[in-house]
Amino acid sequence: MVVIDASSPQLKVLQKWIDAYVAIDLDEIKAVTSKKYKHQTLPKSIGLPEETKEEYTQRLAVMLPMFTKFEVRI
Fold this sequence. Notes:
Blueprint: H1 9-22, H2 26-31, E1 38-39, E2 51-52, H3 53-63
Antiparallel strand pairs: 1-2
């Protein structure tokens, strides 16, 4: 687990976001993701369109069960 000195509101949210991905917890990922969130898959050359929060979390709902572990690197 990554540990961040969460002394600011932004860092507290970042810690929750990291923890949600590491735990593979879709409900928590949704909870810490803004309603205005837009997801862009890179590189753009692979041609995947930008996704809204709802589109992205729907895709995660299909993908996340395939993982037993998810590592987040900063």
